[in-house]
Amino acid sequence: MSRTYLVRAAAATLIGAALLSAAVDTPAQASTRTEFTPTHTLGSGPLCGGTVHAVASTHPLAPGTATVFLRAALTTYFAPSPVWTCLVRTTVHYRNPRTGATGSRSVTLSTSSQPRIMMCTPRVGGGLLCGTTAELKLHTGGGWVDAWVTTALPHIAGTARLNTF
Hints:
The chain folds into 2 domains: 1-30; 32-163, Immunoglobulin-like, CATH 2.60.40. The protein is built from 1 helix and 12 strands; from the N terminus they run H-E-E-E-E-E-E-E-E-E-E-E-E. It has one helix at residues 3-29, and strands at residues 32-35, 39-42, 48-58, 65-76, 85-95, 102-112, 121-122, 128-129, 133-139, 144-151, 155-156, 158-163.
């Protein structure tokens, strides 16, 4: 074999190894986005209810944390007056099987016949009142975490399994 052939073969092997190493490292450096199954719920208001959708985002540069984005698709089925509001107290729970850590964060989502609330504001008596969307940060500890979304009224909980690095 010629010396040129050996140099080219060695260079190709090194380049291939570098590309393979980069391909293996890339997913670990990327953030993850996990959708929960939908949470179907009744609401506080004139025959109202709907679905709460949740999506969690995690990133290796923020280990042990997850940001959960909530979006409520609520409606009323009968309003005795032209002015109505539908409220749903929503809680995101988590359990880290590796560490045993548990916790939850809550927010009240709402929609109404009036212009929608756009920003979360403190409620009298505690908690936050938000419009149809909210963002909650969970400090779960690292590893795989079981998470679920519930409401204070009859519901079918949404669930997800998150990698919090």
